[in-house]
């Protein structure tokens, strides 16, 4: 990861962009949500706690805490709720009180809290708080030095928390008194109850289930800026950086670090960076506790020497690249544990939605289209250099290895030219159109409205999402597998050298997991059913285009394969379905069986088209006979089906049908089966 971030820092430097430098021990607060807020605790001049309130939305995002050692921080840190309630009946009462469905019974609640088993603070809690309210603020006060008048709130906070130094119960009693007083006044019950009592699990040991709350200390009588303020945190950061710079001493005979900068302070842990969605990320974790690290004969910082300056550059570069306001431009979410990063080596003045072009879009950006993003990006990049070949695009992804630690790994890294993106975007769209017309009758936005929808061009990251989804033949899906990687779609779009390795694999996965989708889609299309294209049903618009891309990458164009036996057999089974539907409508009073004639033979056709056609020849006879004598209102349609049957039969008669189909042949047969007729594209034709 350090190599990728070094190249990014060079690009930022050339563009004159200086990421904000944060002291390595001044770390962001945990993510605050309405369900799990960060609480601001206000401390009076008499060292009593005057208020507890949830931090206003968005404030916690720019606050930081001084955390010189893991878990010991100031003025933000985590505490446990004062008491723990694990009894199921009591938890139900707590929930009703918290949600305002029942008036809180303070006498009963106090009786619960008095019980010994309800105590939630133990010796470990006291030990931790003695550091968070004693040693840690003392260290921070020493680092900050004299406090200017504008930030006198910080000085007041230092003085007031010092009263709890060595007092294990003072902070607890202050919190409890404040909460009970507010509850007796009937104030803020919904957010104070979680601080007072943790709703524990009766199946867990109390020591493993104490709960956790993020708090931030402040004073109510601030003047220019409170402690919980962006300006105050910025001032603390400047003081910490100044203090740190004054004590750094360059060693004699110092060797350069891995990137040619000074290697001073290369022996400590590398800083963490907090990224959206995946949280804390370690820039590099090499330590002597992992015996495998000895295989190169060096360990810890000596295996890859990184000085303080290089560390600052790497940390600042990743924080700049992954900042919230650049979502869609330089980064995006591939899934819950992986982020995709993408940027041009020549930084544009205005952000370009490069990550969004790969499909790393915001959740509410459902109306976005690949072709629009690609067009806008190419247009913007053309202004950065004389030729697109001179602009390098860097793409990499970070994956969190587990949910409990900051271990993160670069799982994908490629560099491409902007010229390749322009060429690949055209090829991608040509590939998506490498399919016959597929029209899907779907419900519109207005109630009762029916519209004809066509296939859509997928984003590269949607390739793995679609291919990993396993479909049943009834058109439902409940699970997914990990057969394709998220980055496979980006390689499929941009990489010219690995096409032959990736495409056959992706085609196999598409057929293994998606056959149920195609068979159910065809069966429903030929029954004139109306679709609801939401959720995973959206894949029914994307999967045909993905088959088109894969065939296009294999050099199989629709002008050729639409005259191949597999495609024609698929078309014939489609016509069999439509004739069967027509027959049931007129003769059986619209009573259709669950599976139509052609659909029932599709599984056989995917293995052996010859056997499938032989069975079709026997089973379709009565329907052909009816079609020749049909005199109802649908006579014209039945004549059309007969004519199409005749044309297909004529073409197939002179062809050598394959005994068995390979994967490209199966894809062609499926596309033939779901292809549309002009006669069936009328929304009113039910």
| Distance, first to last CA | 57 Å
Helix content: 40-55%
Count of alpha and pi helical runs: 23
How are the strands of the largest sheet arranged? 3-2-9-6
Shape, principal axes of CA atoms: globular
Please tell me how large the radius of gyration is: 33 Å
Structure classification? alpha+beta
Q: Mean pLDDT, rounded to whole units?
A: 87
The fraction of residues assigned to DSSP E strands is 5-15%
Low-confidence stretches: 680-686
Largest sheet: 4 strands, mixed
Number of strands: 19
Account of the protein in words:
The protein has 686 residues and is α+β, with helices and mostly antiparallel strands. Helices cover 44% and strands 14% of the residues. The radius of gyration is 33 Å and the shape is globular.
Summarize the structure.
It is built from 23 helices and 19 strands. The chain is an alpha+beta fold and 686 residues long. The longest helix has 28 residues, at 499-526.
List the helices and strands and how they pair.
Elements: H1 2-14, E1 26-28, E2 38-43, E3 49-54, E4 64-69, E5 72-74, E6 76-79, E7 83-85, H2 88-98, H3 106-114, H4 123-144, H5 152-161, H6 170-184, H7 189-196, E8 197-199, E9 213-218, H8 230-247, E10 272-275, E11 279-282, H9 308-321, E12 331-335, E13 338-344, H10 354-357, H11 370-381, E14 392-400, E15 408-417, H12 418-432, E16 440-443, E17 450-453, H13 460-467, E18 469-471, E19 477-480, H14 486-494, H15 499-526, H16 539-553, H17 558-561, H18 565-587, H19 597-607, H20 609-619, H21 621-629, H22 635-653, H23 663-674
Parallel strand pairs: 2-9, 7-8
Antiparallel strand pairs: 1-4, 2-3, 4-5, 6-9, 10-11, 12-13, 13-14, 14-15, 16-17, 18-19
Helix pairs in contact: 1-9, 6-7, 11-12, 12-16, 13-14, 15-16, 15-23, 18-19, 18-22, 18-23, 19-20, 21-22
């Amino acid at each position: 990861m350090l190599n990728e971030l070094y190249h990014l820092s060079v690009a930022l430097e050339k563009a004159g962009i200086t990421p904000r430098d944060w002291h390595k021990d001044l770390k962001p607060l945990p993510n605050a949500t309405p369900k799990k807020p960060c609480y601001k605790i206000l401390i009076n001049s008499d060292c009593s706690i005057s208020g507890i309130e949830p931090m206003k939305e968005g404030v916690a995002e720019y606050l930081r805490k001084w955390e010189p050692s893991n878990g010991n921080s100031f003025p933000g840190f985590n505490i446990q709720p004062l008491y723990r309630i694990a009894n199921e009946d009591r938890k139900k009462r707590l929930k009703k009180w918290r949600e305002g469905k029942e008036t809180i019974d303070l006498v009963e609640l106090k009786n619960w809290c008095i019980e010994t088993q309800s105590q939630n603070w133990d010796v470990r809690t006291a030990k931790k708080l003695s550091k968070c309210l004693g040693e840690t603020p003392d260290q921070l006060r020493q680092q900050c030095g004299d406090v200017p008048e504008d930030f006198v709130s910080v000085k007041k906070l230092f003085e007031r928390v010092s009263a709890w130094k060595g007092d294990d119960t003072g902070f607890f009693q202050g919190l409890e008194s404040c909460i009970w007083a507010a509850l007796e006044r009937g104030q803020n019950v919904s957010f104070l109850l979680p601080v007072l009592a943790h709703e524990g699990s009766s199946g867990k040991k109390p020591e493993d289930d104490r709960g956790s709350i993020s708090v931030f200390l402040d004073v109510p009588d601030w003047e220019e800026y409170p402690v919980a303020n962006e300006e105050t945190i910025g001032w603390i950061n400047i003081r910490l950086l100044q203090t740190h710079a004054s004590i750094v001493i360059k060693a004699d005979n110092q060797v350069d670090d891995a990137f040619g900068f000074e290697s001073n302070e290369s022996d400590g842990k590398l800083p963490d960076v907090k990224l959206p969605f995946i949280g804390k990320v370690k820039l590099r974790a090499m330590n002597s506790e992992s015996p495998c690290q000895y295989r190169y004969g060096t360990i810890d910082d000596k295996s890859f020497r990184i000085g303080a300056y290089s560390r600052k550059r790497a940390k600042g570069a990743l924080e700049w690249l992954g900042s919230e306001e650049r979502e869609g431009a330089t980064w995006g979410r591939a899934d819950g544990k992986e982020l995709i990063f993408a940027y041009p080596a020549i930084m544009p003045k205005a952000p370009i939605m490069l990550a969004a072009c790969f499909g790393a879009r915001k959740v509410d950006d459902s109306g976005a289209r690949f072709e629009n993003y690609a067009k806008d990006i190419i247009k913007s990049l053309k202004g950065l250099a004389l030729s697109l070949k001179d602009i390098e695009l860097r793409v990499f992804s970070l994956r969190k290895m587990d949910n409990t630690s900051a271990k993160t790994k670069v799982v994908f890294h490629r560099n491409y030219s902007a010229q390749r993106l322009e060429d690949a975007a055209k090829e991608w769209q040509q590939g998506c159109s490498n399919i016959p017309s597929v029209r899907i009758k779907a419900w519109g936005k207005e109630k009762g409205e029916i519209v004809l929808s066509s296939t859509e061009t997928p984003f590269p990251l949607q390739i793995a999402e679609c291919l990993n989804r396993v479909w049943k033949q009834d058109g439902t899906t409940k699970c997914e597998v990990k057969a394709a990687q998220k980055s496979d779609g980006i390689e499929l779009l941009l990489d010219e050298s690995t096409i032959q390795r990736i495409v056959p694999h992706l085609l196999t996965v598409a057929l293994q997991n998606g056959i149920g989708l195609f068979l159910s889609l065809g069966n429903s299309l030929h029954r004139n059913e109306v679709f609801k294209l939401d959720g995973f049903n959206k894949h029914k618009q994307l999967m045909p285009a993905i088959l088109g891309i894969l065939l296009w990458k294999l050099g199989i164009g629709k002008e050729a394969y639409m005259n191949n036996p597999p495609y024609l057999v698929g078309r014939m089974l489609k016509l069999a379905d439509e004739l069967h539907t027509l027959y049931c409508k007129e003769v059986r009073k619209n009573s259709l069986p669950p599976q139509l004639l052609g659909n029932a033979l599709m599984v056989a056709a995917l293995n052996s088209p010859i056997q499938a056609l032989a069975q079709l020849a026997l089973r379709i006879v009565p329907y052909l006979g009816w079609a020749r004598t049909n005199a109802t209102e649908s006579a014209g349609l039945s004549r059309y089906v007969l004519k199409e049957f005749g044309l297909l039969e004529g073409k197939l008669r002179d062809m050598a049908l394959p005994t068995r189909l390979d994967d490209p042949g199966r894809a062609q047969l499926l596309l033939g089966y779901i292809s549309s007729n002009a006669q069936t594209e009328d929304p009113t034709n039910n």
